Every structure is written in C-alpha cells, then in structure tokens.
C-alpha cells in the first residue's frame, strides 16, 4: 500500500508516526544528511506497521520532506 508521508528530520519527538487527513507525519531524530533521515524513516515506518525494513520502500521524494512510500504488508 502506498502512503504520502511528511518527514520531520532532527525532531526530538522521534521516532514517532502520526496519522492525519493528509497522510502520515513521521518525526525522526536523524538529520537530513547523507540519507540518514531516509533510513530513520524506513525504520520508523517498519516498526509502526510491524514489518521488516526491507518491505518499506521510498518511491518518490528521496530529497524532499514530502515522500511517497510503499509498504508491503
């Protein structure tokens, strides 16, 4: 299933996944440097959905805060 995700890198709240009308908001502690925030996003979503991190894929928006993510449940 695909989700629209807004990422909040460098957040003190993280890792935290919040649902809203626009999609999911994911707070991660990692900063947006060298893909660290993307790795944190994948790990947070995998934990949230109870799947392995290999089943979470960023489809679009690798360099953006708003991403399209596919989760194989």
From TrEMBL:
UniProt GO cellular component terms: cytoplasm
Species for this entry: Microbacterium ulmi
Classification via PANTHER family: UPF0235 PROTEIN C15ORF40
Name this polypeptide is given: DUF167 domain-containing protein
Similarity remark: Belongs to the UPF0235 family.
Any Pfam family: DUF167
């Amino acid at each position: 299933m695909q989700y629209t995700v807004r990422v909040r890198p460098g957040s003190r709240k993280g890792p935290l996944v919040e649902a809203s009308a626009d999609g999911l908001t994911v707070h991660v502690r990692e900063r947006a440097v060298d893909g660290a925030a993307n790795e944190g996003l994948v790990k947070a979503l995998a934990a949230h959905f109870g799947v392995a991190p290999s089943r979470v894929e960023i489809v679009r928006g690798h360099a953006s805060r708003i991403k399209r993510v596919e989760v194989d449940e």
